[in-house]
């Protein structure tokens, strides 16, 4: 079949289709074409060239391709087609090489992590808050590798010093050795110190960057200082330094690129100033540029994968620990956290309190207003409850259905009733209409239990006590707080 016929036979499904097809053109199933060919076909398609508006999306290329099983390619293609056809491309470029399971994205709540995965990070940069988190993840994750790289560098440069002393004439080695000993080796010692001292840790990235810069420029100085006295020493060391900085030093790509570009610039200047052999100069500069190209390419993909791992890791953690509707912790996380807080409180001889919260007459609410509004009400109540956890060891969770729980670590026993009442008042103040409830609006009942953990006790007794208090609050007429008797010795 000729190309024209193939193009004619491929049906148009609308620009920016959201229905699982390739943007612009539905390609025959199983037809595997490189992205460039798909882009070209999409752009050539007569009906696309006629700029027919999409039947589903009011703006061509405006839709997200999250439902598409070719998310990455199709969005990229939409972008490329838009460029070819002079249309605005409203879909940002997604990550260029790693395909993320759409299931994972669809199930995760909308967060900066999910947004970054959907929109991509071609320039290896996230939005501000997320970038900070990533930096912490990157530094922590590479601590051991940075240390190993620093140790290896120190050993290597001591070895180079010995080789210089053994093989170079004294008038050359005095220059090369002094550069290596006074500049390069100390810069790696500083990296080692920064990796070991907690107070210096925030500056570890800067220390590695400085060491990379110092090593690169100093190595150029080593070669130049030898050339200056008419002695040609192997220049391959500078290639090794470039690749080391890109791939082993655990530097972010941008910083590695910057350090190497400065080094490359210094190298080119040195070659034009001191190298008298024009052919050697040409080869050395070409090899240096090639090493930078290879290193920068490898380092880019390495960092891109690390960024993807960071995002996917966080999303998976979120999916396992959080409730999808409300964003509060799920019951599993609550149980794990309760055990932890209980052990901590046992060690510190401090109290733990649990509040169980249940929306009143929620079945009737669902029956009257529908499940969708029920979900929205659950979310609104959850947002109020989320404000109840103020200390690091406090936790708010969706216990199940329309029931929530709060863990308070070391609360003041006399304030529990008031804390519960603040919550009931805040939910009532949401003014969510509930005509089948006594107050005409949505309310909650709260049961609170407090206990001082004793050896042999378990946290389940506290949960049961809070549940009984909640039952009592319901029994007494709802929209109220009942604080139970302390489970063990009261604080
Ligand atoms: N919309 C929505 N409803 C839910 C969800 N989970 C549980 N429910 C509903 O919550 C209701 C709970 O009803 P019940 O346990 O009978 O309690 P209730 O009607 O609140 O009555 P009381 O607790 O005695 O005041 C049920 O109708 C469930 O279908 C959810 O995720 N979304």
Automatic annotation (TrEMBL):
<feature type="transmembrane region" description="Helical">
    <location>
        <begin position="258"/>
        <end position="276"/>
    </location>
</feature>
<feature type="transmembrane region" description="Helical">
    <location>
        <begin position="233"/>
        <end position="251"/>
    </location>
</feature>
<feature type="transmembrane region" description="Helical">
    <location>
        <begin position="148"/>
        <end position="171"/>
    </location>
</feature>
<feature type="transmembrane region" description="Helical">
    <location>
        <begin position="282"/>
        <end position="302"/>
    </location>
</feature>
<dbReference type="GO" id="GO:0052621">
    <property type="term" value="F:diguanylate cyclase activity"/>
</dbReference>
<dbReference type="Pfam" id="PF00990">
    <property type="entry name" value="GGDEF"/>
</dbReference>
<dbReference type="GO" id="GO:0043709">
    <property type="term" value="P:cell adhesion involved in single-species biofilm formation"/>
</dbReference>
<keyword id="KW-0812">Transmembrane</keyword>
<dbReference type="InterPro" id="IPR050469">
    <property type="entry name" value="Diguanylate_Cyclase"/>
</dbReference>
<feature type="transmembrane region" description="Helical">
    <location>
        <begin position="203"/>
        <end position="227"/>
    </location>
</feature>
<dbReference type="InterPro" id="IPR029787">
    <property type="entry name" value="Nucleotide_cyclase"/>
</dbReference>
<dbReference type="InterPro" id="IPR000160">
    <property type="entry name" value="GGDEF_dom"/>
</dbReference>
<dbReference type="GO" id="GO:0005886">
    <property type="term" value="C:plasma membrane"/>
</dbReference>
<feature type="transmembrane region" description="Helical">
    <location>
        <begin position="177"/>
        <end position="196"/>
    </location>
</feature>
<dbReference type="InterPro" id="IPR043128">
    <property type="entry name" value="Rev_trsase/Diguanyl_cyclase"/>
</dbReference>
<keyword id="KW-0472">Membrane</keyword>
<feature type="domain" description="GGDEF">
    <location>
        <begin position="350"/>
        <end position="486"/>
    </location>
</feature>
<dbReference type="GO" id="GO:1902201">
    <property type="term" value="P:negative regulation of bacterial-type flagellum-dependent cell motility"/>
</dbReference>
<keyword id="KW-1133">Transmembrane helix</keyword>
<protein>
    <recommendedName>
        <fullName>diguanylate cyclase</fullName>
        <ecNumber>2.7.7.65</ecNumber>
    </recommendedName>
</protein>
């Amino acid at each position: 079949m000729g190309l024209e016929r193939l193009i004619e036979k491929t049906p148009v499904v609308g620009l920016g289709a959201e229905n699982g097809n390739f943007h612009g053109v539905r390609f025959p199933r199983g037809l595997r074409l490189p992205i460039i060919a798909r882009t070209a076909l999409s752009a050539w398609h007569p009906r696309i060239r006629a700029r027919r508006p999409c039947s589903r999306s009011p703006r061509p290329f405006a839709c997200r391709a999250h439902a598409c099983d070719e998310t990455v390619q199709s969005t990229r293609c939409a972008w490329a087609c838009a460029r070819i056809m002079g249309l605005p491309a409203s879909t940002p470029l997604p990550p260029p090489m790693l395909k993320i399971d759409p299931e994972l994205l669809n199930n995760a709540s909308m967060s900066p992590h999910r947004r970054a995965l959907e929109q991509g990070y071609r320039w290896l940069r996230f939005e501000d808050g997320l970038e900070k988190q990533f930096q912490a993840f990157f530094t922590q994750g590479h601590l051991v590798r940075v240390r190993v790289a620093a140790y290896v560098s120190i050993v290597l440069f001591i070895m180079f010093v010995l080789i210089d002393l053994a093989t170079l004439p004294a008038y050359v080695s005095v220059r090369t050795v002094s550069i290596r000993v006074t500049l390069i080796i100390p810069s790696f010692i500083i990296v080692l110190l920064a990796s070991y001292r907690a107070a210096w840790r925030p500056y570890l990235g800067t220390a590695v960057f400085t060491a990379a810069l110092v090593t690169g420029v100093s190595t150029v100085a080593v070669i130049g200082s030898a050339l200056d006295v008419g002695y040609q020493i192997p220049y391959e060391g500078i290639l090794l330094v470039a690749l080391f900085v890109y791939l082993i030093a655990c530097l972010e790509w941008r910083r590695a690129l910057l350090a190497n570009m400065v080094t490359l610039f210094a190298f080119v200047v040195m070659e034009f100033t001191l190298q008298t052999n024009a052919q050697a100069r040409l080869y050395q500069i070409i090899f240096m540029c090639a090493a930078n190209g290879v290193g920068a390419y490898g380092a880019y993909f390495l960092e891109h994968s690390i960024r993807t791992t960071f995002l996917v890791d966080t999303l998976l953690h979120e999916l396992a620990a959080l409730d999808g509707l409300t964003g509060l912790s799920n019951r599993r996380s609550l149980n794990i956290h309760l055990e932890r807080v209980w052990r901590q409180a046992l060690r510190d001889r401090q109290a733990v309190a649990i509040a169980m919260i249940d929306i009143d007459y929620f079945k009737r609410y669902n029956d009257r207003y529908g499940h969708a509004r029920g979900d929205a009400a659950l979310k609104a109540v959850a947002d109020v409850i989320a404000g109840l956890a103020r200390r690091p060891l406090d936790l708010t969770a969706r216990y199940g259905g329309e029931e929530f729980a709060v863990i308070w670590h070391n609360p003041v026993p006399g304030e529990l009733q008031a804390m519960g009442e603040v919550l009931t008042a805040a939910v009532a103040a949401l003014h969510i209409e509930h005509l089948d409830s006594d107050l005409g609006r949505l309310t909650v009942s709260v049961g609170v239990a407090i206990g001082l953990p004793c050896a042999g006790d378990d946290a389940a007794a506290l949960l049961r006590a809070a549940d009984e208090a909640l039952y009592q609050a319901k029994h007494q007429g709802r929209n109220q707080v009942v604080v139970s008797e302390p489970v063990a010795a009261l604080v």
